[in-house]
Input
Amino acid sequence: MRTALVTGGGRGIGAAICKKLASDGYRVLLTYCNSSKPAEMVVDDIRNSGVDAVAANCDVTDAREVALLATHPWVTEGVDVLVLNHGRYDRIDAKELDLNHLRRTMSTNFEGAFLVWDAVKPRLSEEARICVIGSQLGTRGSPHGADYSASKAALSIWARSLAQSLAPEGKRVNVIAPGFVDTDILAGDSPEKRTSREQEVPLKRIGTPEDIAGVVSFLVGENSSYITGAVIHVNGGLYLP
Ligand code: NDP
Output
């Protein structure tokens, strides 16, 4: 059976990606950091649909935990799809950003993705697909997330470089850059803020985790066999670079 490994798959966008890949026929190894209960619920949902799934605790900023993840039997048997989805976004004014905060964000969003890739790469199957969840802010920047935007820009250009390096082997790497998506990241919005976001989006709605999961499914499937090194903007027309 084909195996998908999804980081941060216990909630939000990651959970929707896990469920979608399971419905596509992958057994799913998902990682969580702090949220064990939601992760177990995702595993139960997938198993109830008749597909195998398992959750592993792994803080991507901890090289030892990532190395341990790479010894999981489902990894050593070969990973067909790797989705680097985990991420943190702490709203902070760009003027107030300090070095510690910058390092924390970079080490989670960028270095954490690198660590997972680096640990898992010997186990990738011949025609493995890698999908990286970036952000519209990785192109656009944000006054409330200079660290986050920089980490996502780094992630995106790293992934595109990797795509060029891996293409001769038949492995594909693509980036999804979501706009506003309805997860805990937006949970602090007031009703007014939510309405103003909806008005800002040309399609006049906030995206759902399933909007992103559907694009992951496409990018790891056969219908995208000539796409690698791409950044797909999934944002309701909010920002068209
Ligand atoms: P959530 O905050 O809902 O989920 C974040 C996920 O990242 C959780 O599963 C969390 O695990 C995991 N995570 C955070 N830190 C670590 C860590 N150190 N090690 C391992 N896992 C970690 O966010 P979303 O679902 O919205 O975001 C998913 C991805 O999409 C992120 O990369 C985010 O930047 C990106 N994105 C989201 C947008 C949005 O509007 N929602 C817009 C653009 C991009 P746990 O809960 O177990 O700690």
The chain has one domain: 3-234.
